[in-house]
Automatic annotation (TrEMBL):
Protein's recorded name: phosphoribosylglycinamide formyltransferase 1
Species annotation: freshwater metagenome
Catalytic activity: N(1)-(5-phospho-beta-D-ribosyl)glycinamide + (6R)-10-formyltetrahydrofolate = N(2)-formyl-N(1)-(5-phospho-beta-D-ribosyl)glycinamide + (6S)-5,6,7,8-tetrahydrofolate + H(+)
Pathway: Purine metabolism; IMP biosynthesis via de novo pathway; N(2)-formyl-N(1)-(5-phospho-D-ribosyl)glycinamide from N(1)-(5-phospho-D-ribosyl)glycinamide (10-formyl THF route): step 1/1
GO biological process, any: 'de novo' IMP biosynthetic process
Length: 189
């Protein structure tokens, strides 16, 4: 069927690399970031992909930043936008324009432990299981409809780093499998 995937990332790009190492790579048309100097862009450029940067600090306000991001996204004509470690909250204009096309991974079993510290919050709560979630992006923080989840047990002696590493392994696989399904069928179901 074929699909056009745009990946948004802010960090080292390990989720992006999982996509690039999979058959889904052929569908990735661009990688964007809010940070000019990040590992994800280096990985994308090494793979020969188009990249773009929309740094918030270069805009007068969030609205202008969202409009610039929208312009970049329109230029790539995505069927799906993957927030893969993208550490910015997308504005209402971006979400409304691409509603149902933006997905995000989160290192916890939503609706529990939303936000930037899902792993730390799960450990602090003393849960015996946590995991990762793939969900649609909506106007809230990690509140969109859930596409799929994976459970990861909390092991005795786990700290935030060790637990997060095990979650990341599942998160990468969860994302790649969902994207493979989307590319094959046009749906995450």
């Amino acid at each position: 069927m074929g699909s056009r995937i745009v990946v948004l990332a802010s960090g080292s790009g390990t989720l992006l690399q999982a996509i690039l190492d999979s058959p889904v790579r052929a569908s990735v048309v661009a990688v964007g970031s809010d940070v000019a100097d990040c590992g994800a862009l280096v990985r994308a450029q090494a793979a020969g992909l188009a990249t773009f940067v929309v740094e918030p600090t270069t805009f007068a306000n969030r609205s202008d930043w969202n409009n610039a991001l929208l312009a970049e996204l329109f230029g790539s004509s995505p069927d799906v936008i993957v927030s893969a470690g993208f550490m910015r909250i997308l504005g209402p204009s971006v979400i409304s324009e691409f509603r149902g096309q933006i997905i995000n991974t989160h290192p916890a079993l939503l609706p529990f432990f939303p936000g930037a510290h899902g792993v730390r919050d799960a450990l602090a709560a003393g849960v015996v299981n946590t995991g990762c979630t793939l969900h649609y992006v909506d106007e809230g923080v990690d509140t969109g409809d859930i596409i799929s989840q994976r459970v990861v047990p909390v092991l005795e002696g786990d700290d935030e780093a060790s637990l997060h590493e095990r979650i990341k392994i599942e998160e990468r696989d969860l994302l790649v499998r969902a994207l493979e399904q989307f590319v094959a069928t046009g749906s995450f179901k």
